[in-house]
Write a structure and sequence with these properties.
mainly beta, 7-stranded mixed sheet, 4-stranded antiparallel sheet, elongated
Length: 121
């Protein structure tokens, strides 16, 4: 019923930038919070950034001042602009969203498939 598709990952040198996108599609009535998580090898998945439907944002301490989360409600899309990337930012990045489904009127949390970000020289 609902799909989240991430794009924009890749290989970048330390100090470089990447912009991730995550588009939601399907039988969507409303999207509430949209979030970016990441999971590095051997580590637990962690919340990187969050944005409410009204545009309020929150960031992990490790990315404050370097990453910016934003959303386009008309396109059901959330973005993560990542600047001044460090090797420790290397991980698979996942988006998730709290979505109200039109056909069922049920609300649930949905995840994308993940996109690899590698920061290396």
């Amino acid at each position: 019923q609902v799909q989240l598709v991430e794009s924009g990952g890749g290989l970048v040198q330390p100090g470089g930038s990447l912009r991730l996108s995550c588009a939601a599609s399907g039988s969507i009535l409303s999207i509430y919070a949209m979030n970016w998580y990441r999971q590095a090898p051997g580590k637990q998945r962690e919340l990187v950034a969050a944005i409410t439907s009204g545009g309020s944002t929150n960031y992990a301490d490790s990315v404050k001042g370097r990453f910016t989360i934003s959303r386009d409600n008309a396109k059901n899309t959330v973005y993560l602009q990542m600047n001044s990337l460090k090797p420790e930012d290397t991980a698979v990045y996942y988006c998730n969203a709290d979505i109200l489904i039109l056909l069922t009127m049920r609300r649930g949390t949905y995840w994308g498939q993940g996109t690899q970000v590698t920061v290396s020289s």
